[in-house]
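Re: duplicated header lines in exported structure tokens

Our pipeline writes sequence and tokens for each protein into one text file. With two proteins the header for the second block appears twice in some exports. Here is an export where it did not happen, for reference. First protein block:
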Amino acid sequence: MSRNALVGRRAVVTTGTARTASPARSKVYDHFGQAHYVMMEPHDQSVEVVEGEQVLLVRRKGDIFFGKKLEERRLSPN
């Protein structure tokens, strides 16, 4: 499976706070239900995403994914 297939999926920050140039570890499930851990930065440079917050992965550059914060969701980091 290509890691590009994770773009367009929801992820939750599991460790750290994601900021521009300071990614946080995030958990995302592929279409098979397999969990993947990726490094994610916010798509919007003025936003921080803290542990437990959910994002929509909107693009990837190398090993870093970029996510748009989903305000209506806050999940447990586990």
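Second protein block, exported in the same file:
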Amino acid sequence: MEKLKIYIESSAVSNLEQPTSPKEQSDMRRLWELIKQDRFDVVISSVVMEELDDIKDSKKREILSDYLDEIEYEFVEYEDHMDPIVDDIIRHGILTENHIEDCQHIACAITKRCDCLVTYNMRHMLKITTVKGVRALSLLHCGIVIDIVKAEALIDIGEEDDT
């Protein structure tokens, strides 16, 4: 099976160091180990880096930076040519202008033709209306369907034995 290309959003990275959510932390750490074994192609954007830079707890910020140093990933800079995707997300009511960073994450994932966007943003990104809207927009903009998932949805795929 061909490796999946996954966009990792900042809430997912943050869950690597989230002891108040032990299940999510465990799932993200398992996914991270699979990433380190080169089971997935990973995309991380400037939007992720900016959000991680905004974490007030300097110790957590440093720990998450160390995690990012452990893996290979394709870095994508959010650029103006992605704005029409953000505009479509807002115009179609998938998300609002109040969630511009979430829209930018989606635009980066669509632009890089990712198979999945990994998030733990339950309030906005993992809502069924967002998931279905992103599937439709990704099909329109890049000709493939992008799914929005939590780490646990990818763990079994990454752990599959090739035999």
